[in-house]
Structures are given as structure tokens and as C-alpha cells.
Please model this.
Amino acid sequence: GQQLNQSPQSMFIQEGEDVSMNCTSSSIFNTWLWYKQDPGEGPVLLIALYKAGELTSNGRLTAQFGITRKDSFLNISASIPSDVGIYFCAGRGTSGSRLTFGEGTQLTVNP
Amino acid sequence: DSGVTQTPKHLITATGQRVTLRCSPRSGDLSVYWYQQSLDQGLQFLIQYYNGEERAKGNILERFSAQQFPDLHSELNLSSLELGDSALYFCASSGGFGSGNTIYFGEGSWLTVV
Model:
């Protein structure tokens, strides 16, 4: 089956720093999605990517769909305390509509 | 607000009992997905329904079952509950099977088995 490796597992940064996290897949994906989950809440969609090479921004967040279609990264610029949470990547492959999720990146921002 | 509604938000029940979690998808979405998230764990896919029919099955236990009704709402039934079933259960919905649409999550149902 499809496997997603998300890294890093956790990050501890100072407010104002930039952050980068990425996901790699063992197979080709047609869609990459990035979600953020606050404690006790449902994952909230941040960015959706549908084409290889696509670079999309949402405020301070930027995500890219890798050229090989097997990876994606998410950057957060000028982090603020409310960026704290777990960030999940998710990919949808060619065989159907089921999403595969990464294990998540726990982000801690120190003020 | 994602448009996906889940009830109840919190539930505490005893081992051996049975509970039903309910989900109303976003307006117009035909697919409903159920995920389980245990403490400090990732999202484990349980099952997907599309327009009333089961489409994909993940790591769903035999004690668990789900269905999607003609009005497209879905229920996840958890029976013979064990302590390890305590988790957040998420419902998500999307526009169609294989369409590449994104999925949107509800706020989850917290299940505590004591």
C-alpha cells in the first residue's frame, strides 16, 4: 500500500522563525493536501495541490507539489504562537479517492 | 466551520457497551469517511462510503460498522467497547469518488471508554 513519510516529527522554534516540513511517498500522488490540527479539534485544510510543480500560498504558508509527484513541502514564514499544532500532509494516489495521511509534525512556537 | 457536523461531541461509556456516532456531510458531498485518532497518534482510516455504498475499508475492527443513509448522513457503530477504543473519531466528506476533491473534517467525537 501507499506509505507517506512526514518529517520532522516535531519542531521547537522561536517566534518569528521560518519553518519547513515535508512529506515523501513511495508512490505517485495526484493530490497533496496539508492540514493543521489544534488539540481536540478536527484537522483544518490549509492548502490543496493538484498539479506537479504547483506552488500555492495561503498567507504565511506556502506549499509545493513536487515535480516527481512523490513529495510535497510546507513552509511557514515568520511563525507566531498560534501556529502551534500538528500539521498533517495527505496524498491521494492514482488508484482511487482514498487519502493517505502522514504521521504529522508537532510544531511548538516559543514566544 | 467545515460544514461537516458530528454528534455527539463527547461521549463517556463503559466497557462492553455500544455507541453510535453520527455525521452529516457538507451539503452536496456524496462521500463520507471515518477516521480514528488515538492519543498522540495519527489519523487511522476506518471506512469510506459513497452515495450509500461502501467504497473503501481501512483498519476497521469487526466490532465496528458503519452505514450511509439515503439522505447521505452516516453513522459509525462501535460495539463491545474496550478501553483501547477511547479515541477521537472524525468524519470527513468530499464531493465524489475518485474526483480528486479535497476532504473536509468535522470537529470529531471524543469517545472515552471507562
